[in-house]
Amino acid sequence: MKTSYTVIGKYERDEMLPSIEVAKNLARLLDTTVGYLLGEASSSSTFKDPAMLQRLNEINSLPEEDKHCILYTIDSLLQNARTKKAFAHK
């Protein structure tokens, strides 16, 4: 990361916050995302799938009504999958 042990120690002790560039480099070195490092994502691989990110960006760029319909459909499909999974384990 091209930084000193002293600076890394300050990060670890919350005495200093890394810049966004340092956070991005750290995430890259640890093969994760900045969101995961910040505790905003529960899985380190949630946003690493380029095809999934492209889909999410596409959905996000749609008009609100279209976005709402697509997300409603996805929510329904996810609920169906969770239900199947729950009954499969019994």
Describe the structure.
The structure is a single chain. This protein is an all-alpha fold. It is elongated and about 50 Å long. The chain contains five helices and no strands. Helix content is 64%, strand content 0%. The longest helix has 25 residues, at 64-88. The chain starts with a helix and ends with a helix. It has helices at residues 5-12, 20-29, 34-37, 50-60, 64-88. The protein folds into two domains: 5-37, no CATH class; 50-88.
Integer average pLDDT: 84
Q: How many helices?
A: 5
Number of domains: 2
- Cα-atom radius of gyration: 19 Å
**SSE series:** HHHHH
Q: Please indicate the percent range of residues in DSSP E strands (runs of 2 or more).
A: under 5%
The gross shape turns out to be elongated
Number of strands: 0
N/C terminus separation: 49 Å
Biggest β-sheet description: none
Percent helix among the residues? Answer: 55-70%
In the predicted model, the low-confidence regions spanning at least 5 consecutive residues are none
Keywords, separated by commas or semicolons:
single chain; 90 residues; mainly alpha; elongated
Helices, strands, pairings?
Blueprint: H1 5-12, H2 20-29, H3 34-37, H4 50-60, H5 64-88
In short:
The protein is mainly alpha-helical and 90 residues long. The chain contains 5 helices and no strands.
